[in-house]
User: Fold this.
Amino acid sequence: MGLKIIDQTKGIWKKTPYSTLLYLLLVVILACLISSYLLGAVFCKLVFGISFFSSSQQVFDPSNQNLIEAMKAMQLFNAIGTFVLPPFLFLHLRGLPAFQSLKLNVQLSRWSILKLFFII
Assistant:
């Protein structure tokens, strides 16, 4: 059933004007950010026992190793939900091939990797 919904939503924004697409992109980013925060908070509550929904002293204790690990997990969830999911979801809703549009299928040459190394 889930894959049927994914197939039905492909390309629903194909003929949407660019001015509207900008607002829709912001909505997608915000929705992914909120959902990744909620998912990360539930994950941290279940795995680490730390609740990000309350303002207890446990959340503000930097010497707590569980807190540090939970914050790393929250950062991972938020980074994926803000920077990875929205482009793929937006391109799916536009009906465009994600890997080709984001140029993820291009092979890097050794010279490009070397230049990237020096830039970093």
